[in-house]
Amino acid sequence: MQKLFGVEKKVEFGWYILGSILIIIGTFLGQIPFGIAAVMATLKKGKGMPSDSVALMQALDLNLSLFLMLLSFAVAFGVFVLVIKYLHKQTIRAVTTSRTKIDWKRILFSFCLWGMITVLTTVISYYSSDSTMEWNFNPSQFALLAVIGILMIPIQTSVEEYIFRGYLMQGFAQLYPRRWFPLLWTSLIFGLLHIANPEIAEMGYIVLFYYIGTGLFLGIITLMDEGMELALGFHAANNLFTALLVTSHWSAFQTYALFKETAKPQVGFELFLPLLILFPLLLFIFSKKYQWNDWKMRLTGPIYIPTTLKNQTYESDLS
């Protein structure tokens, strides 16, 4: 018996809609300090209000902007914990994994593996003959960036993973109890929510294939591993190392990174490199290390939902 969704009491999809609305409200509340600071800084400089997310990030010192932007995710995470505890009567462990406790070794392995790959590909890009990356290192600014990133970015990525690969996976399972259904919908929504990112405006909607594909990859490793640990580690490494290593005038994260991309972004093979090569490579490594099997059943099979609650606990099991 393989546990997938450990849900208690309030399991109808409507409760997940309510919970999602509360989390969104929490996110907006968390954005208020950033908005106030940006408005005050803009008025002080005598400039017009920022017209897009990039201009908003640049209204303040980049480290302060990053901190205030990530603060909204800390508030959202607090609301999420309250929703899980009081609305659904669950524990964070139950949303995270089917194991008896969260496997921190899995999180660390995934984090280190993707972190090393990210560093390697960045170094290769920098030293390639056609590189347009410039060395951008400023010791004091980078040190503060590192502190903010290490403390805050894992909160941001964890919020996204808990919502999509944990909470909404459970929710969509109530609508149609087959594993492919929550996998598909959470991947689509995860990708489409990035539609406002500045790189979409620069390169076009084709970039959404990358975000949807990334959501699909994270959903696959969550279902195959019966837990979110690998997805949590991957997402934290992806955003943290991206913020520390490379920035550009058009990226979602405006930071004092080690390198700065100076060229105008273009759609090329590097956009699809993760989807076509790196993500399949990670799936192979994870499957061998954690001995995954029965892919069809784990990714498309039924989710058996009992009609009775035992000890006021509701579980969806896959047998």
TrEMBL record:
The keyword Membrane applies. It comes from the Bacteria. GO terms for molecular function: endopeptidase activity; metallopeptidase activity. InterPro entries: Rce1/LyrA-like_dom. GO terms for biological process: CAAX-box protein maturation; proteolysis. Residues 143-241 form the CAAX prenyl protease 2/Lysostaphin resistance protein A-like domain. This is CPBP family intramembrane metalloprotease.
